[in-house]
Amino acid sequence: MLVILIFFSTFALVENLNDKKIAVLLSGGVDSSVVLYELVRQGLCPDCFYIKIGPDQHEEWDCSSEEDMEMATAVSHKYGCRLEVVDCHQEYWNQVTAYTMEKVKSGYTPNPDVMCNRLIKFGAFDEKRGHDYDLIATGHYAQTEIDEWGRKWLCTSPDPVKDQTDFLAQIYDWQLRKALFPIGHMMKEEVREIAELEHLVNAKRKDSQGICFLGKINYNDYIRRYLGEQPGDVLELETGKRIGKHKGLWFHTIGQRHGLGFGGGPWFVVKKDMQQNILYVSKGYDPQTAYKQEFRIHDLHLLTAPIDTKDICFKIRHTPEFHHAILEAEEGGAYIVHSDKPIHGVAPGQFCVLYDEAHHRCYGSGEITV
User: What is the pLDDT of residue 167?
Assistant: First the structure.
């Protein structure tokens, strides 16, 4: 079987991109800045866009958007490219924030960054400006390849720590066809080295952490702003003994250990009773109640084509590790994931991201239900 691999090397860029109209999403970080460098050094002159999704100016949140904008402006000017600000603030708060708050209020563990890629970076932006472009280039650590039928696949980065296919596994097929990841074949160290050699203003800037726009804002403060607090009891699962009080079940996730603040631990969150407003915990460094070997997923979203095998790899959080499993289809469109070993911290609302056995191609992802 002939498989045509498109890696964004020097030759692939020249051969495949010269006749394309490209938009680069500049975030102010080093990754997207090196994306622009990689395209410009091939003789291309893409248009650059900074997507504004942070709080309004009158908000008192400590947001890094002003610094991001300064960095993006400096880098675009360095390479003589036009920079335009696209305001997707309202779309973010109407769609991504609404999704996040609905999920956490129901006791689930959502991933706002996953939905930000689908609804904002490749969604709202495309509606406003991206539709005028053939390709949208981002600084994601991911690759793509084209098979013999011309289908485009999302593939993992060689950097296992930085690989971001899990954050991209909910985008639509048409969004994937427009996606361009010029640094996806690189290791993070290579990107930093290029940035320093090019004397980019953000070469030594630290990577952003947490939700895509929050910057230094604490995630719990983000939730508290919209849902407030709802105190309740914390009980030991095995004995029913009262351990303490929580400020709201939405501040906790299954498998959580840090930040609980209870003595005599360590304690792990193992269950949430939304109706009774009770948080259940187990004690110990490795309690069996914190693990699951089988769990269900629903609303399986496939990126390119149906899964033609039961043997898969998967991950349920942004970590370098992949797990092997058997995928069993159920009536009604749900699936059971039979992991070959127990997995820590399986939480409803998380996305289970599915890959081939070599964890090379990403099939897509589904939401964990139990």
Answer: 97
